[in-house]
Amino acid sequence: MVFMPTTTYGFDWPDRFVVGTVGLPGDRTFYLQARDRGATVSVSLEKQQSAALAEGIAELLDRLRSQDGNPFNVPTETDELLVDDDPLDMPVDEEFRVGVLSLGWDPKTSQVVIEAAPPPEIDPEELEELQASVDADEPIELEVEPEELLSVRIPVGAAKAFVDRTLAIVNSGRPLCPRCGQPMDPDGHECGGPDGF
Questions:
Q1: Domain enclosing residue 27, as ranges
Q2: For residue 69, which of 16, 39, 141, 196 sits 20 to 30 Å off, Cα-Cα?
Q3: Superkingdom of this entry's organism (predicted)?
Q4: For residues 105 and 155, what is the distance between their CA atoms, to the nearest angstrom?
């Protein structure tokens, strides 16, 4: 087995960290993009992953804010200076497609830590060998180091701005049908609502 070192794109206190899209509603590609000192890294992800990341950060900020005395000064509103409504930096060159997202908190630096990696690649032959060598009744745990990793550390104010922007972008897609709740396309919609239209 050959282990390749992980290529890490690390951003500590980046100039910019956003979710943005390319394309029209209904055919949008979502990107997570970090920029610092002229270096920009973009990774693609699903709309649902974008929403889950923003909701996870919002929950983390709520927990920190609710601690006695709000020791990390977590804001309830986004500072106007941190609002970022600009499009993604172009050109958008995708480093990888996100398969794994993780979220953490560093109390030493009061930073939210976000990591994104592609889906793990497991050699089927190695998996078969491993399965053959263990008891079938015991679960198999594999620790697979990602080939690439985007690691971003941002302060709480930037995290709040990230949540607001991401949720606004997620919710700005196609309008939902009032009958069936599914997204409506501009060129028509087959509704599976209660009346069957």
A1: 7-129+143-170
A2: 16
A3: Bacteria
A4: 10
Domain tally for the chain? Answer: 1
Query: Do residues 138 and 150 touch, judged by C-beta distance below 8 A?
Result: no
**Cα–chain center distance at 41:** 13
Q: Is the residue at 63 inside a domain?
A: yes
What are the residues whose beta carbons fall under 8 Å from the beta carbon of 154, sequence distance 6 or more? Answer: 13, 14, 17, 111, 112, 114, 162
Confidence at residue 122, expressed as pLDDT on a 0 to 100 scale: 65
Helix intervals (H) in 27-182: 47-65, 124-133, 156-170
Q: What is the token pair recorded at 115?
A: 């990591």
Q: What pLDDT score does 135 carry?
A: 57
d(CA 104, CA 73): 17
Report the amino acid identity of residue 157. G
Contact 45, 32 (CB under 8 A): yes
Answer yes or no: is 195 within a domain: no
CATH assignment of the domain containing 111: 3.30.2450
Residue 184: pLDDT above 80? no
In the predicted model, is pLDDT for residue 86 greater than 60? Answer: yes
